[in-house]
Amino acid sequence: MDLAELRKIRRELHQIPELGFQEFKTHEYLLHYIHSIANDHVEVKTWKTGILVKVSGTKSKQLIGFRTDIDGLPIFEETGYDFASKHPGNMHACGHDFHMTIALGALKSVIEHRITDDVLFIFQPAEEGPGGALPLMLSDVFLEWYPDCIFALHIAPEYPVGTVASKTGLLFANTSELFINFKGKGGHAAYPHLSKDMAVAAGAFISHVQGIIARNLNPLDSAVITIGKMTSGHVQNAIAETARLEGTIRTLNPVVMSQVKELLQRLAKGFEIMHDCHIKLDYGSSYYQVYNDEQFVQRFKHVTKKIGIHYAEAKEAMTGEDFGFMLKDIPGFMFWLGVNSSYGLHHAKLKPREEALEVGVNTVIHMLRELSMEGKIS
Ligand SMILES: CC(=O)N[C@@H](CCC[C@H](N)C(=O)O)C(=O)O
């Protein structure tokens, strides 16, 4: 598939970003395209808004999986693109439009030029939340087509086009969503002594949360707590009876994640006393770390050298990915694809360079061929 076709697909997908498990138009678009290129060697199954496509190999000994995520984020786009999101308030701000396009490009190539082994293309919903990977893995469809090995990519705004990056071992963090609800006593803005102001309590809580990392955790254990959304009150001249903080926790190992949750609970208890209120903590969905298998990363490096793509050694990142659940049970790896954008992931102005689409397709196809040629990694 040439760049013009890849660009066309990416731009069409970019206009229809949908949130986790609501990717109905995206599902329809993908399914339509997949059926338009399918032949007798292709089988298609669906799971919720996800799609699994199996292309049979010429003399298969294994099933190689390639996974892409398909959902968007609740972010108002500010790219100024003439093909910007037609779903106001939603945006492909994490590159899943790129991931899907690359998967379709690689799928088309594998259908036209079959490889030895069977290949499973997984179009997975809800990566940004609440997480599609784990329930998909438990589904009948996945259990029937359980891959022997698997890999995936993620766009990387900080790397130039033509560079890919990965590393052995830990690549992405453990994550947990965080929702904190405050309930106090509302009242007239002029009578603070008769109320329990939850805007003040929640504001103070945000500052104290950072003290957990600075003063409670071992400085050698990395962690991040980010509160990305704060809501409270109804009107400017009334004291807010409720407040809600929404955020996420990131750690480099599961033990530190439990420690952070325990410390948050303790902080909340203290705040309940201090602000005479009730605080409820919920954790939403949690993702397991992305941990790359060394043998796959070595094979990947070999492939990049063979096809003349620059390989950079990545550092661990505090980003999360529910692909970590797949890598927990299935050998494989994940890599970053350079897309050179001055605005980063989850930014309303993210503008990945479209030339990276060709690099992505080329890299995926060659990795599939490498894994198929060399046989199973035990
Ligand atoms: C690659 C990426 O950006 N992934 C997301 C995953 C979010 C999981 C969940 N909603 C959470 O916030 O914990 C990320 O924000 O890292």
From TrEMBL:
Pathway: Amino-acid biosynthesis; L-lysine biosynthesis via DAP pathway; LL-2,6-diaminopimelate from (S)-tetrahydrodipicolinate (acetylase route): step 3/3. It holds the Pfam family M20_dimer. Mn(2+) binds at residues 94, 96, 128, 154, 346. Its EC number is 3.5.1.47. GO terms for molecular function: metal ion binding; N-acetyldiaminopimelate deacetylase activity. The keyword Lipoprotein does not apply. Signal peptide: none annotated. Coiled coil: none annotated. Keywords: Amino-acid biosynthesis, Diaminopimelate biosynthesis, Hydrolase, Lysine biosynthesis, Manganese, Metal-binding. GO terms for biological process: diaminopimelate biosynthetic process; lysine biosynthetic process via diaminopimelate. The Mn(2+) ion enhances activity. It is an enzyme of class 3 (hydrolase). Residues 180-269 form the Peptidase M20 dimerisation domain. It catalyses: N-acetyl-(2S,6S)-2,6-diaminopimelate + H2O = (2S,6S)-2,6-diaminopimelate + acetate. The keyword Chloroplast does not apply. The active site is at residues 69, 128. InterPro entries: AcetylDAP_deacetylase (IPR023905), Amidohydrolase (IPR017439), Bact_exopeptidase_dim_dom (IPR036264), Peptidase_M20 (IPR002933), Peptidase_M20_dimer (IPR011650). PANTHER family: N-ACETYLDIAMINOPIMELATE DEACETYLASE (PTHR11014:SF98), PEPTIDASE M20 FAMILY MEMBER (PTHR11014). Catalyzes the conversion of N-acetyl-diaminopimelate to diaminopimelate and acetate. HAMAP family: DapEL. Belongs to the peptidase M20A family. N-acetyldiaminopimelate deacetylase subfamily. This is N-acetyldiaminopimelate deacetylase.
